[in-house]
Amino acid sequence: MKVYLAGFNVDTSVLHELEKKAGKRDDLTPEVISAAYARISRDPRPVNEIRKDAREEVERSRKSNSTIIFKMGHHSVAEHAVFNLDILGVSRLIMEEIEKFRLASYTEKSQRYITLDKDFVLPVEIKGTSHEKAFVKMIRRQNEAYFKLFDRLKDHVFKKHPDLAADRKKHNLLEGWAKEDARYVTSLATESQVGLTVNARNLELMLRRFASHPLAELRSLGRTIYELIAEVAPSIVIFHEANDYDRDTYPQLKNLARDIMNAAAEQPIDAPPQEVQLIEYTRDADDIVVASLLHVSSNRSYEQCRSLVKTMDTDEKRKILKTAWQNAQFYDSMLREFEYVDLTFNVVVSAACFGQLKRHRMATITAQPYDPGLGVTVPESIERIGMGEFFQEVIDETNEVYSTIEKEIPAAAPYILTNAHRKRVLIKMNARELYHMSRLREDSHAQWDIQNISRAMSEQARRVMPLMCTLLGGKDAYNEIYKRVFGKLPKVTEAVLPGARKIK
Question: Using CA of residue 185, residue 189, residue 191, residue 197, what is the dihedral sign?
Answer without folding.
Answer: positive
